[in-house]
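pinned: reference chain
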Amino acid sequence: MTLDEMEKFIVRYTDLKPCKTAFIDAHTPGSNQKDNFTIIGAGVSESPDQYVHIKETPGFNIGAAGQPPGCRNSLHCHTTAEVFYVLKGSWRFFWGRHGNDGELIIKEGDLVNIPTGIFRAFENVGNDYGMLMAILGGDDAGGGVTWAPEVISEAKNFGLILGENGLLYDSKKGECLPENVKPMPLLSEDELNKFPEISTEEFINNFYVSSSELSQKSKNSPLKVIGKDGILKDRPGFEVEYITDESCCNEAYTLSQYEVNMITKGTWDLECEGNTTRLSPGDTCLFKPNLSHKIFPAEPGEASFFRIIKTDDLAGSSWGS
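pinned: its structure tokens
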């Protein structure tokens, strides 16, 4: 494998291309400065303008959300996993039918595995532009986003209509729903009443891992963060491990499943079939099954990355929910 071939499966943080009109709330005040990134797989963007860096999917999708201070992502839910770790900034996550069942401030290096079937939203509460890296379960990321009814209704006041086909139509651009496409139906009260309530305590105990816990528990060996035997016990179609400069194996290895590495701290050298390239925080790389490769710290100092490995579990509801 040449260096050029390796680069086809690496997405550099500095090369990320945002879409500012990815979702129904793209024109809604307070949410109209969002950047959405689809890194591996098409994700859940509702806009034809979304740039996809690597279209091949390994059983899950990798994406990112960038937002300036005060900007929020509106209440929505997913039918497959939605995992976030904070690359930059401080973020407030809040959830529930009206966004008031609970909330949690998460900071750089923290990770959340938000359970399926609940409305969730998040906003940048830091002082600078913030970045969340995301893992979405399933090749099709669960088929799209389900929005709280008020999000769709408010968006219409600012020119955006979501079709039943999952695509956005912008009246500000002179667009309208095609004759054969109906508007996305709003959830009924009966449907909304079926959404569960989750307290902040329950969320912290079952769906959140702090940066300090990740560091403390990964000193001697790779730490299983999400999985049947992970800190967060879930089977979303993939497992997540946290690896540091102290716990990496420093030897070439192969896996029978797809693997994605997401760099969080420090610099790492990736070696594959005699060629080496350097990875930095925010970089993402995809490995096909049975490909021998080696990743090791490039220089002294604290370094870490998340390794996501496809499993044979089907993408779907959070385990036990």
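why pinned: The chain has a mean pLDDT of 95. The first helix runs from residue 3 to 7.
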